[in-house]
Amino acid sequence: MLELLLLFCAYLIGSIPTAVWVSKGIYGMDIREYGSGNAGATNTFRVLGSKAGTFVMIVDMFKGVLAVRLSYLLSYYHNPDHLTQLVNFQIGLGLAAVVGHIFPIWANFRGGKGIATLFGLVLAIQPLVAICCVGVFLLILSLTRYVSLSSIIASIAFPILILYIFNEPEVFYRIFAIAVALMVVLTHQKNITRLLSGNENKVPLFKNRRTRD
């Protein structure tokens, strides 16, 4: 019963619509009416610029971290013998936050794609893997200025790191890593189409921006 309550709390944390609140509160507009229409860091970078985009990305990442940390409220998971159960529950909490980000109760269930919150999940469970993924993301972003492409490649690097570099023993975590890569690719089909056709928007890395597509 307590697990279900914490999963619901994780969903509420994930539902915090950072991009919507920032765009409305500071810029007087709804980010979902501009660019790709997503309430996430990628669209915030594209429409409002690097400062707003970075802030939204950090907060959305923190939502994943905070959701995972809810597991430590239950004494059962303090026992080292329950490590497998702890990791599985943490993944569940993180995924609940991701669902909240995609379907936020505080913003009429219209959110983003959940990439930053997914990263926060990984950061909380396995920081070194997360840092490696961030390195891949930043490298691709600096070379191409495509946030979507950077997210896709970083997500593909995730299961490669888990399976072959760090050789993660937890089976559920290995499956989760593969599922994340597949999910990110599937949710970025439109971006992939625009990338292939040369129509994907690049993000401004060093200046603010507000455009309407």
From TrEMBL:
First-level EC class: transferase
InterPro entries (UniProt xref): G3P_acylTferase_PlsY
Subcellular location as annotated: Cell membrane
Reactions listed under catalytic activity: an acyl phosphate + sn-glycerol 3-phosphate = a 1-acyl-sn-glycero-3-phosphate + phosphate
Superkingdom, natural source: Bacteria
EC annotation from Swiss-Prot or TrEMBL: 2.3.1.275
UniProt keyword annotation of ATP-binding present: no
Pathway: Lipid metabolism; phospholipid metabolism
GO BP annotations listed: phospholipid biosynthetic process
Any one GO cellular component localisation term in the record: plasma membrane
One Pfam family recorded for the sequence: G3P_acyltransf
Keyword set, alphabetical order: Acyltransferase, Cell membrane, Lipid biosynthesis, Lipid metabolism, Membrane, Phospholipid biosynthesis, Phospholipid metabolism, Transferase, Transmembrane, Transmembrane helix
Major subcellular location class: membrane
Membrane topology type: Multi-pass membrane protein
MF-aspect GO terms: acyl-phosphate glycerol-3-phosphate acyltransferase activity
TM region(s), chain numbering: 52-74, 86-109, 115-139, 146-165, 171-187
Function: Catalyzes the transfer of an acyl group from acyl-phosphate (acyl-PO(4)) to glycerol-3-phosphate (G3P) to form lysophosphatidic acid (LPA). This enzyme utilizes acyl-phosphate as fatty acyl donor, but not acyl-CoA or acyl-ACP.
Record text on subunit structure and interactions: Probably interacts with PlsX.
HAMAP family in alphabetical order: PlsY (MF_01043)
UniProt record similarity statement: Belongs to the PlsY family.
Alphabetical list of PANTHER family matching this protein: GLYCEROL-3-PHOSPHATE ACYLTRANSFERASE-RELATED, INNER MEMBRANE PROTEIN YGIH
Protein's recorded name: Glycerol-3-phosphate acyltransferase
Organism the protein comes from: Chitinophaga oryziterrae
